[in-house]
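User: I'm putting together notes for a lab meeting next week and I want to include a structural view of one of the chains we've been expressing. I don't have a solved structure, so I'd like a prediction I can at least talk through. The sequence is below, exactly as it appears in our construct file.
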Amino acid sequence: MLYKLYSFIIALPLFCVATIITALIVIIAALCGDRTYTCYYLPRLWSRVTLWLFLIPVHVEGRENVDKSQSYVFLANHQGYFDIFLLYGYLGHNFKWMMKEYLKALPFAGLACQASGQIFVGESRSSIQNALEQADKTLRKGMSMVIFPEGTRSEDGEMVPFKRGAFTLASQINLPITPITINGSFKVFNRHAWSVTRHPLRLTIHPAITPEERQGLPTKQLMQQTFDIIHNDLDVNA
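Assistant: Thanks for the context. Below is the predicted structure for the 238-residue chain, given as structure tokens.
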């Protein structure tokens, strides 16, 4: 009860203020032509501050599997809202998001995401194709991409089958696929919750699947292999 009071009275108002300030600075930076540094490092700080405000412990494993000079397609399971803060704050690699189109409507944050060059994808075939083309251009400039291949947040903490788009993108641009497992986010703030619960978060960055390792591998088999890597480290009770 004390934590709930703290989160509503102190953490949430401070989070809202920090979000507005961060979004405004990102928009201004993007309009000035900086979509790479300010538009990544400031949201990274905002994410860490958010987790600190809500008193959420974070543990990261596998940072040695990421080369900062290499571009990747990062694929993670999607347990809840705090996945965003965990990845932005602790992945340790500059990237753009592929996110649902309806998120454009978020106050301040939606405009900041559009200004900073995040990739939005809708449900139509044309929207998906357009998103893949934009992502292709972004990745060819040396940026990495984070995608939730399930396409939506988990209903119960468990994973659902992956969608094909992320794997098509990684194959056509010939980049390593790095699987990521997120644990604990479902208990912190899932799609059915109305408030934040204090619970540890764990981010596990697995070794990349290189283009050479997946050469000749059917897409369905690659999808299953990636799913298994992420799922094998998933603990819905963690």
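A couple of points you could mention at the meeting. The helical segments are 2-31, 38-53, 83-90, 109-115, 125-140, 165-173, 185-188, 219-232. DSSP finds eight helices and seven strands in the chain.

User: Perfect, that's what I needed.
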